[in-house]
Amino acid sequence: MTKYVISGASGSLGRKITEQLLEKIPAENLSVSTRTPSSLDALSQGGVAVHAADYNDPVALERAYAGSDVLMLISSLAVTKRVPEHRNAINAAKRAGIKHIVYTSTAGIHPQNPTLSASDHIVTEDDLRRCGIGYTIMRNACYAEVFPTVAAQPVLRSGEWVQVEGNGKLAPISKNDIARTAVACMLDPARHDGAVYEVTGPDLVSFRDIAAMASEVYGVPIRYVPVSIDQRYALLDAMGVPRQYAEGMDGHPDAHLWCSEEMVTADIAFQAGYHGILTHHVEFITGQKPRSLREVFELCKGKDYNDC
Ligand SMILES: NC(=O)c1ccc[n+]([C@@H]2O[C@H](COP(=O)([O-])OP(=O)(O)OC[C@H]3O[C@@H](n4cnc5c(N)ncnc54)[C@H](OP(=O)(O)O)[C@@H]3O)[C@@H](O)[C@H]2O)c1
């Protein structure tokens, strides 16, 4: 009987993967790991083994992964510091006897992509290719839920969708569809061994399209405002967003919550076309098409990011 472990199970994607995997396998075949086991009490009461393990703690990681065959490795949030964290997880997986790792990378993997977070994933993807055990890389496009929630909130207040200028496109995907894809890869590692999937939604859209969609769904006029890179930085400076990551930023222990360098380099990459990728990999892997951005907008309208 194959045993599974999900690392990063307490996060928004990890919870969806866990829920969907438990529809297919008994709880006793699943372990999960997190730095905050108390956040997963409900799982533990349902018979899932919950382990405490930080990506900075190789011994705890090995303990958490021991006895499992397939690891779902959800990438850490510590952008620019997470390569060694992921390396710890991969090496712990090898020591623990894991046979296959499914990893959450990002869309737009390219040596010239200026996005801070992409550079981390490039190195971890290489580590996986060399690690000597089976792997599947999921290059997840931008979460569709971000646009009707986190991105729309300031726009609905100001009536302006401000974006670094350019004509880039992207194919946002819902977290539910990413989770379905991850579960399918975990359940059939032989079929997906060595594969690199571009996990995209069904449509390529520009930011101008997204602003128009927000306007239609929320029923308010929204003006699309392209700005230069310097203007974008100046706007974020005025909002008090720090340029770079710093320890304790936003009161979060990882200091991971959006510095402007991360946001603006991501915008530059979007508008330069690095995310202009549309595939049918979700349907190829799961047999089912992913939701459109419009459907996600309707489902998430008026909700918080974490509730949709
Ligand atoms: N494609 C996109 O648009 C997009 C959007 C958002 C995020 N992401 C990326 O996708 C990945 C997962 O996203 P998510 O939405 O599930 O994020 P999330 O809700 O913030 O969850 C992050 C998970 O990572 C775990 N984690 C973070 N640092 C850790 C560490 N040092 N050791 C062990 N576990 C750690 C957290 O566990 P504990 O805190 O409980 O330990 C949590 O379970 C992240 O890499 C994130 O950057 C992608």
Automatic annotation (TrEMBL):
Top-rank taxon, per record: Bacteria
Domain NAD(P)-binding residue range list: 8-189
InterPro entries, alphabetized: NAD(P)-bd_dom, NAD(P)-bd_dom_sf, NmrA-type_oxidoreductase
A Pfam family: NAD_binding_10
SUPFAM superfamilies, per the entry: NAD(P)-binding Rossmann-fold domains (SSF51735)
PANTHER family given in the database record: NMRA-LIKE DOMAIN-CONTAINING PROTEIN, QUINONE OXIDOREDUCTASE 2
Protein name (database record): NAD(P)-binding domain-containing protein
